[in-house]
Design goal:
Layout: E1 25-32, E2 38-39, E3 46-48, H1 51-54, E4 61-62, H2 82-90, E5 107-110, H3 111-119, E6 128-135, E7 138-144, H4 147-151, H5 156-172, E8 173-175, H6 176-180, E9 198-207, E10 210-217, E11 220-221, H7 225-228, E12 239-246, H8 251-270, E13 276-282, E14 287-295, H9 296-301, H10 308-325, E15 335-340, E16 344-349, H11 359-362
Parallel strand pairs: 5-7, 5-10, 12-13
Antiparallel strand pairs: 1-2, 1-9, 3-8, 4-14, 6-7, 6-15, 9-10, 11-12, 13-14, 15-16
Helix pairs in contact: 3-8, 3-10
The chain binds adenosine-3'-5'-diphosphate and magnesium ion (MG).
Adenosine-3'-5'-diphosphate binds at residues 162, 165-166, 168, 219, 243-244.
Length: 366
């Protein structure tokens, strides 16, 4: 019988003032190459192509291009926080070893995990599983795929839908390498996308009284100079989030967008200070004929049946719960927090599993 005092995820209980959230600051970046290998640089930073070029009248993009020849997606088993841990090791010289916490953080995770928690009060279908370890007074949170996600093999059609999202990002952006080679900005249009590459920023912020550090995959950057020159600091408001969505043909579709999609877009962007989403409105065949910039503020202004303060208060309540419940440092104890919309929370201590804070990481610290 579990005796944990879990927080409420009922929106009515969470409709309090918006908690304190410090404007997120970028403290570094990392890339994953086409083989999903960690690279400690900005090589995969995607530069947004000029707006007049992508928003132009009469432009259309076929997102199917290259699908048949697409690169195999590499699934790394047990990736957990590994790439963030590699980034921490690469930046260890910036870490004050006299302080107990890793980079002074109460919590260390990916932005996607915070987003998942934030959206729970309005989530009706999918649950989540978090693996949690506390070491050096820092709580590390890693997402574990739920059995439903793990057992789901995407159909060819679902593979295609996923490819459309990546292809849209690819069409809207160019990398430093291509820009330096003086390639035409649209040189990548005809080529298949490699879905394995990523650029992540490392952020620090404060939620309530908790100092948080999190990695996040970022889409398009508005300053081309920052790609070639690593000494130029990256600014959150110069990133845009790229999304595809079904072109709206009737009011029901607009309601769905405002009720279900905007809450996810808002949470994802808000956590990293992204101010704009560039949406490619696609038809059922994957052709985009209209590209539109929607501000993140507009997403929350036109919210239908969700509230940002409810989302953020839930995140704060979950962090408060973890801080209170997980008190001792351990390199062997892994907590497993599970939440499903119909069943709520369960928490247990994992038995006989491999902790996700590996020896190659912790042995590098005193
Ligand atoms: P769209 O969201 O435009 O469909 P992100 O927007 O988070 O940067 O993700 C980029 C793309 O990755 C998505 O584009 C989608 O194609 C794919 N993707 C991300 N999360 C997914 C999920 N849970 N299921 C299916 N595809 C996903
Ligand atoms: Mg995107």
């Amino acid at each position: 019988m579990s005796s944990y005092d879990f927080p409420s995820y009922n929106p009515r209980d969470l409709d309090r003032d918006f908690p304190y959230f410090a404007y997120p600051k970028i403290v570094g970046g990392l890339s994953l190459d086409g083989n999903r290998e960690f690279v400690h640089n900005r090589s995969q930073l995607q530069i947004l192509r000029p707006e007049n070029e992508i928003l132009g009248e009469g432009k259309s993009f076929n997102l199917n291009i290259g699908f048949e020849n697409k690169f195999d997606r590499i699934t790394v088993q047990g990736e957990y926080l590994n790439n963030m841990l590699r980034w921490i090791l690469a930046n260890r010289h910036r870490y004050d070893e006299t302080k107990s916490q890793i980079f002074g953080a109460d919590f260390l995770t990916f932005r996607g995990t915070f987003r998942l928690i934030m959206n729970s009060p309005y989530e009706r279908n999918e649950g989540w599983i978090l693996r949690i370890q506390k070491w050096k007074d820092t709580i590390f949170i890693a997402e574990e795929k739920t059995p439903e996600k793990l057992n789901k093999v995407p159909t060819q059609q679902e593979e295609r839908f996923m490819y459309w999202g990546y292809k849209f990002e690819d069409l809207m952006t160019t990398t430093a390498k291509k820009a330096c080679q003086n390639a035409a900005p649209a040189a990548n249009e005809d080529e298949p996308v490699n879905e394995n590459t990523e650029f992540n920023c490392m952020f620090v912020s404060k939620i309530g009284n908790f100092r948080v550090q999190y990695g996040a995959e970022m889409d398009g950057y508005m300053d081309p100079n920052a790609a070639a020159d690593e000494s130029i600091p990256l600014q959150p408001d110069k990133f845009v989030e790229l999304k595809t969505s079904n072109a709206i043909r009737h009011p029901g579709q607009e309601r769905t967008l405002r009720k279900f999609k905007f809450v996810k877009w808002w949470a994802q962007c808000f956590l990293v200070g992204t101010e704009n989403v560039i949406v490619g409105w696609k038809d059922k065949d994957g052709v985009v004929r209209n590209v539109q910039k929607i501000s993140v503020k507009e997403c929350s202004r036109s919210a239908l049946e969700w509230k940002g303060n409810v989302c953020f208060n839930f995140l704060l309540d979950v962090l408060t719960f973890l801080k209170k419940t997980i008190v001792e440092d351990s390199l062997t104890k892994v907590y497993r927090l599970t939440w499903y919309p119909d069943r709520g929370f369960t928490m247990e201590i994992e038995a006989c599993t491999e902790p996700f804070l590996h020896e190659w990481f912790y042995s590098q610290f005193k």
